[in-house]
Write a structure and sequence with these properties.
The chain is α/β, with parallel strands linked by helices and 317 residues long. Helix content is 49%, strand content 15%. It contains 14 helices and 8 strands. It is globular, with a radius of gyration of 21 Å. The N and C termini lie far apart (50 Å).
């Protein structure tokens, strides 16, 4: 397990607990009471740290190296039922955007999401979760297939943004994202969006239009990353913490602004601390929201979706 700077008190207590248990195993000394005291202190410390997180600390948690990625969720939720589908039928298969069919119980879903890598080699292979235009076109192709067969769509968002390279712009990055936003507003099947990590800029919006938009507790959703915002406003990355506060990018901020529908609480210590429990929570949330959405006719579904998005940013004086 890797630890962030503000998680170091947790690391120290976990190491103490490990040493205490080891002493008990290697000697005749009864350390039960001592271990219980350390466990109690550990639970209190964890609760205290995660109760008072700043916006920047939540950004750090969303990028935690041990945090589960899209494929982790899909494999845990669907098991052996997941069938990955490839290619946009125009250029190539974008490894940063994955998608395919899978089941939760007896219900089939079309899963789509950005995938980051676990180490240097896989990060390069996945282009750090930054999709090219063909990634968004692949996502749209899969959504249209889902619509054709009446299958609901689930999108997992976890990206530092769409790939900003020259070749991506040459192949129409902006058009691909805009096309996805337009087509998703009028897709005739339910769309459930879950923000599981970073939700940056148009890269996130390209698969982010949904009937139900859920956001895990320690994630962020914004037009720009705190570092980029800091470098534009202050010509330095030094002010990223101030930028994170000003951007109002946390799940609590998003819910307050009515830009998302629900905050999904993570287990104590964050999604990386208890991955299995996180997978269970997300699976149950997807199933619950689909139960509500499947009752609506395609016409009502689209009307409700359009009403939701056209109402965003509207203020009454």
């Amino acid at each position: 397990m890797e630890y962030l700077d503000f998680e170091l008190p947790i690391k120290e207590l976990e190491e103490q607990l490990e040493k205490c248990a080891l002493i008990g195993e290697e000697s005749d000394v009864d350390v039960t009471e001592t271990c219980k005291q350390i466990e109690k202190k550990l639970a209190e410390t964890r609760k205290q740290i995660y109760k008072n997180l700043t916006a920047w600390q939540r950004v750090q948690l969303s990028r935690h190296p041990n945090r589960p990625y899209t494929l982790d969720y899909i494999r845990a939720i669907c098991g052996d039922t997941f069938l990955e589908l490839h290619g946009d039928r125009t250029v190539k298969d974008d490894k940063a955007m994955i998608g395919g069919l899978g089941k939760i119980g007896d219900q089939s879903y079309m899963f789509i999401g950005q995938q980051k890598g676990y180490n240097t080699k896989t990060r390069q292979y996945r282009n750090f979760g930054m999709a090219n235009p063909e990634g968004y076109r692949k996502a749209l192709r899969l959504m249209r297939s889902a619509e054709k067969f009446g299958i609901p769509v689930v999108c997992f968002i976890d990206t530092p943004g769409a790939y900003p390279g020259i070749e991506a712009e040459e192949r129409g990055q902006g058009e691909a994202i805009a096309r996805n936003i337009l087509e998703m507003t009028r897709l005739k099947v339910p769309i459930i969006v879950v923000i599981i990590g970073e939700g940056a800029s148009g890269g996130a919006l390209g698969i982010g239009v949904g009937d139900s938009v859920l956001m895990l507790e320690n994630t962020w959703y914004s037009v720009i990353s705190p570092e980029s915002c800091s470098s534009i406003l202050w010509r330095s990355w030094e002010y990223k913490e101030q930028a994170a506060d000003a951007l109002k990018l946390t799940a609590t901020d998003m819910k307050k602004l009515k830009l998302i529908d629900e905050i999904v609480r993570e287990p104590a210590g964050g999604a990386h601390a208890n991955r299995e429990r996180t997978f269970e929570i997300v699976r149950d949330k997807i199933a619950k929201h689909y139960q509500d959405l499947e009752k609506l006719s395609p016409k009502d579904l689209i009307a409700k979706r359009m009403e939701k998005y056209t109402g965003m940013g509207v203020f009454k004086g």
